[in-house]
From TrEMBL:
This is Metallophosphoesterase. Pfam families: Metallophos (PF00149). Gene3D superfamilies: 3.60.21.10. Residues 73-78 form the Serine/threonine specific protein phosphatases domain. InterPro entries: Ap4A_hydrolase, Calcineurin-like_PHP, Metallo-depent_PP-like, Ser/Thr-sp_prot-phosphatase.
């Protein structure tokens, strides 16, 4: 069974960053990391998921998942790929329209390799920082208290769907936050600039879009690093 939540101890030697949805634009991401002075020998990068679809480099996802400093969670696009590869119901026309053509046209054996890698991704990560615990989910927390997250994800498909698909917090401008965390970092819904509601940081600033950019959030400061 997939581990639902992975815990990461404090990084005592370098910096930890979170990045929003990548959607097959790994070259752009690499440029953003270079500008932030990212050092793969000591720094770590946490992805909110949606590594694939829409961009031209989706097939690089497996290479990035093999990097020891890159830690992703499962987004809704990875979840769709898993279901499609396993023959579960997926609206193929809608999937292709949302960037899934690269996956649909892969040989069956290759699709299964990607799906297996995506299925091993946790739905959540939590990272110790000097100022407290930071959580990572793709879209939103299905619970108001982080201590109840694993229990909720394990029991209810609706909770897993909210974690990967929900836009309700942004739409409702819900500033209630999530107890038990210093901050929760999410993506999924593109925003022009990072939005903070309570202690929930929405950081998908459309690095995969023509007029967007990747936001790298320093988890120690909860700010974007100075660009070099």
């Amino acid at each position: 069974m997939t581990t639902l939540l992975v815990h990461h101890e404090l990084n005592r030697h370098g910096r930890d960053f979170a990045v929003g949805d990548i959607h097959g634009h790994f070259t752009r991401l690499r440029t953003a990391l270079d500008h932030a002075g990212f050092d793969p020998a000591i720094d770590r990068l946490f992805s909110v998921g949606d590594l694939v679809d829409r961009g031209p480099e989706s097939e690089q996802a497996l290479d990035w998942l093999a990097l020891p400093w890159f830690h992703a969670i499962r987004g809704n696009h990875e979840d769709i790929a898993i279901r499609y590869a396993r023959g579960n119901p997926v609206d193929q026309t809608n999937y292709i329209a949302n960037g899934g053509a690269w996956f649909v046209t892969l040989p069956l054996a290759r699709r299964r390799i990607y799906a297996e890698a995506f299925a091993r991704l946790p739905l959540a990560r939590e990272i110790e920082t000097p100022a407290g615990l930071v959580g990572i989910l793709h879209a939103d927390s299905p619970v108001r208290d982080w201590s109840r997250l694993c229990w909720s994800l394990r029991l209810w498909r609706a909770a897993r769907d909210r974690a990967m698909w929900s836009r309700a917090r942004l739409q409702d401008e819900d500033a209630g936050g999530v107890a038990g965390l210093r901050a929760l970092v999410v993506g999924h819904t593109p925003v022009e600039d990072p939005v903070v509601l309570g202690n929930v940081h929405h950081i998908d600033t459309g690095g995969w879009m023509q007029d967007g950019r990747f936001t790298l959030l320093d988890l120690a400061t909860l700010r974007a690093p100075a660009m070099r």
